[in-house]
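Please, structure for the following, as tokens.
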Amino acid sequence: MKNVRKIVIPYGLFSQLIIHAEATKPYESVAVIAGRIEDDIAYSEKIYTPENIEQSRVSFTIDAYVLLEIYTEVEKLDKQIIAIYHTHPAPPKPSSTDLEYMEVNPYIWLISSISSPDRPKGYLLLENSKLKEVDIEIRKNQ
């Protein structure tokens, strides 16, 4: 995962993220993205939009049972978790809490401002605790 330089999201899936983010305002929204990695590109194939059980403007939590169901389904589909998407009330940069969770969830973290959920930034946390920006490509033809 650390060598991934870009995540590709089909427009239809990206639209699901935006709709979910708009529907959960003013609270942080969260989504789990599954797919595959080929070479240095992560391809999004399925979006899960669980509820933020905190109903918070500044943090999110996914119910543990719901998260287990997501992981189980992803495994059955022979896919992998490639990204976590969530919104922030502020600019789309990882918070100190995000950085802690990125250490134990080594996926691409896509973060959007609540005011502009259609403009996420992508990040990976490297082993040296440095952030790497990941390019995001929204594919219109899928």
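The chain has three helices and seven strands. The two ends are 23 Å apart (CA to CA).
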